[in-house]
Amino acid sequence: MRKRLILYILFFGGPVLASAQGPGSLLQRYNRTGADTNHISASLQLAAYYLNMEGAPLNMDSAAYYIRHAEQLSRRLQLEFYIYKSLRYRAMWNALDSNYSAADQLFTQVADLYTKAGNKEEAAFTWRLYGDCFAWNDFAHAALRRKAYETAYNLYKQTPDRQQTADLLGKVADADLNIGNLDSAETELLSVIAQYKTLKFPRIYYGYYLLAQVYSRKNLVQQLKQARLETATAFEEDPDGSAYDGGIFYGGLGNSYLVDKEYEKALEAYTRSIALNQTANAPAHYFVALNYAAKCYAALHRYREGLAFLRSKAHVFPYPSRVEERSMLMSEIALNAGMGNKARVQAIIQELKPLDQVLYDSIYKLRDYYSVNQYVNAGDPLMRYYIQTAQWDRMNAAYQLLDALPKKDQVVSAKQNMLEYAYYLDSARGDYLSAMDQFRMLNQINDSINKVNTSAQINELETRYRTLAKDKTIQLLNNQAAIQQERLDRRSLALNVTLGGVLLLVILAVAMYYAYKSKQRANKRLNEQQEEINAQNLRLSTLLDDKEKLLEEKDALISEKEWLLREVHHRVKNNLQLVISLLYNQSAYLDHPAAIKAIRDIQNRIQAIAIIHQKLYRKPGVNAVSLEEYVRDLVGHLGGVYGPRLRRIRFIQDLDPVPLDPAQAVPLGLILNEAVTNAIKYAFDETGGTISITGHLTSAELLKVVIADNGKGFDEAADPAALSLGMEMMKALARQLNGQLERKNDGGAVIIVTFRVGQADVAVPGRTAVPVG
User: Which InterPro entries is this protein grouped with (predicted)?
Assistant: First the structure.
């Protein structure tokens, strides 16, 4: 995993592309505006929201719709400013969709248009966005990424914006670093740091951090440690520095101390990194620091203390990947081996074997600089255990695997480890000449490292950073006490809110019961009044004025009845939303993934029912729900919930506008929710696929609904008795509809529901195809 800061927080700059509003307020603005610039602006803000620019779930289909709408209206109104802006959003959409050929053409076109219009700032920002669309490790398009940043940098140099110019030079350096142009990256970053000093930019530590990465790749140990100390010192001087950044910075500083064998200082730095990563909710960096802290405890022979520390911290987060799980097992080996607990070490080794093999195969294929170095260094405890127990055959087999990994850009600590392993193996085989060669090379590396300790500049930096770190640690402890008290207050408030919510639900249930009784009494009164009116019409046929008055009263009562029905549906919808919110709040305090997943599934099922009641109270008549509109809204809701998974999933809806009675809409909606959710979760791998939903009247009354995907399909070999709760529930709901449910494999999983609709005489068979994508 990459140990550097992600690109989106590295070198600030660029205007905010969308407001901090949620989709609700943006949709209201979009619906309120006419065919004008406000409508175009609202469309582009919605596109930005669905392109995940504010942490919202990615929804490529919705983003494409609003981008296309904004571009068409801009061209119709001949508004160049908005035409350029729409094209730039379309370019970003193509880049996020990995269609880099179309993205390159569009970004270049937009930048040229801005340049010809004399707007160099927007042209530069367009090229900057283009570069930001590429992942740091997308080596196939690395040249495009660097070209985009360099073009933006050259344009910014022609503007008075010195901050943006320095930021873009930093991005060029970042691209050069990943391509492997280390000398160019070093020169560029030294220039960036000089400019930041002139601008008094408080986050100058980003420049030092990347410079440290360059020195790490070039194995310049003295310069690397100095750059990391500069990074930590600058971070301590910034009162607004983020915990995420600090966690990474202190982890790097700990690595430099570890290479110098200054284990106490390294442990102090790793402990700070662990605390900051926990605050920033960054589990990957958290486990890296925790693993190295355990190595420090082992090197200091504080085995029991280290093992207690490891166990107290290891379950703060679930393991993000197998890499972190392997690192924690290796740390346990180091500490248990130091305590002489061989039985526990052997048990861990057996547990480690299958995991280690899978990781090795993936890293050998990937051959990534960071992954290879981390794999070699993390496995050091196992190699030391083989040395300690003289298991030379096993050590030699493990060494051969490590030696087969790429050695380009190997960091100093990995080189040290590999030379020591070779030294011990050669000595065990009696090949003392070769062992002496390994020992001589190891001493050369150690001598170059020891020079670091004689640097007065580094010692001065270290004193300065430690003084600042001490003050900040005291402040952090005070803040943590305040945060802990706030958490206790929140838990108490959440408990009170939960109890209040339950009480409110009971009150609402009683109120609904009385409302239902009142409606029955109203209906009874209405029937009695109708009979009275009919009798009066017979008796008083000549009194037309009285008859008209009574008919008006009848209409008023009918209107009141419809209003009451809409009000009931409205309240039911609101109550269901309240339940969803309560479940969401409760899930925030759960740690068990299965419990959280169960609550999310319940929320989706409740939302499927809530959509029906929302349709009923918004439409006149409140007696039917359109199948076409309901499925569209339900798919839209699931898109918000499973946004990241839907990026490569395409939906096709082909539905008749069949009006459904609420009694049938509810079970059908739950069936649709379960089927679509299962398809999203289990049908596809990372390449994605297609989910189609069709619904047609095969006769005047018979409705056939089919949910199909082109994914993995059902496991036909599975035991029928082992059906999931979801499938059992769908069958029960189909029986509730007095219909049939069929599941089969046909190029993927297919679920078919057939039943007679309650208002078939209103529906007219037809076809309305709505491809989404």
Answer: HATPase_C_sf (IPR036890), HATPase_dom (IPR003594), Sig_transdc_His_kin_sub2_dim/P (IPR011495), TPR-like_helical_dom_sf (IPR011990), TPR_rpt (IPR019734)
- For residue 651, what are the domain limits? 626-773
Highest mean pLDDT among 109-113, 555-559, 620-624: 109-113
pLDDT band, very low/low/confident/very high, at 685 (cuts 50, 70, 90): confident
Residue linked to tokens 């997308």: 138
CA–CA distance, 118 with 84 (Å, rounded to integer)? 13
Mean pLDDT over residues 652-661, rounded? 89
Q: Indicate whether 716 and 572 sit together in one domain.
A: no
Q: pTM for the full model?
A: 0.54
Indicate if 618 and 631 belong to the same structural domain.
Answer: no
Nearest to 156 by CA among 120, 188, 132, 190: 120
In a domain, 366, yes or no: no
The whole-angstrom separation of Cα 612 and Cα 666 is: 7
Q: What is the mean pLDDT of residues 590-599?
A: 77
Query: Does the residue 751 lie in any domain?
Result: yes
Same domain membership, residue 32 and residue 156: yes
Q: What is the pLDDT of residues 5-36, one digit of tens each?
A: 333 333 333 333 344 456 778 888 888 888 88
Q: DSSP 3-state assignment of 659?
A: strand
The CA distance from 407 to 428, in Å, is 24
Q: Is 48 in the same domain as 120?
A: yes
Does residue 86 lie within any of the structural domains?
A: yes
Residues 732 and 773 both lie in one domain = yes
* 318 burial type by CB count under 10 A (0-12 exposed, 13-18 middle, 19+ buried): exposed
User: For residue 208, what are the β-bridge partners?
Assistant: none
CATH number of the domain at 749, please.
3.30.565.10
Spatial neighbors of 11 by CB under 8 A, at least 6 apart, are: 166, 167, 168, 170, 171, 174, 206
Q: 99-103, 461-465, 645-649, 665-669: lowest mean pLDDT where?
A: 461-465
Q: Do the Cβ atoms of 168 and 149 come closer than 8 Å?
A: yes
Distance (Å, whole) CA 412 – CA 405: 15
**How many structural domains are present in the chain?**
3
Q: Which residues of 536-571 are buried (b: 16+ CB within 10 A; e: fewer)?
A: eeeeeeeeeeeeeebeeeeeebeeeeeebbbebbbb
- The verdict on residue 351 lying in a domain is no
User: What's the pLDDT tens digit per position in 249-299?
Assistant: 999 999 989 888 899 999 999 999 999 999 999 998 999 999 999 989 999
| Residues 157 and 51 occupy one common structural domain | yes
Which of 594, 622, 650 corresponds to the end of one domain? 622
What would the pLDDT profile of 363-399 be if each residue is shown by its tens digit? Answer: 777 667 668 888 888 888 989 889 989 999 999 999 9
pLDDT in tens, 731-746: 999 999 999 999 999 8
Q: Which value, in Å, is the radius of gyration of the alpha carbons in the chain?
A: 33
| Residue 587 sits in the same domain as residue 640 | no
Distances (CA, A) of 425 to 184, 360, 437, 587: 40, 22, 13, 53
Q: State the SS3 of 229-275.
A: HHHHHHHHHCCCCCHHHHHHHHHHHHHHHHHCCCHHHHHHHHHHHHH
Q: What is the CATH number of the domain that holds 10?
A: 1.25.40.10
Closest C-alpha among 52, 88, 51 to residue 70: 88
For residue 183, the model assigns a pLDDT of 93
Q: Are 231 and 207 in contact (CB under 8 A)?
A: no
Among the candidates 201, 218, 240, a domain finishes at 201
pLDDT in tens, 509-539: 888 888 888 888 888 888 888 888 877 777 7
Q: Which amino acid is at 757?
A: V
Tokens of 646: 């839907």
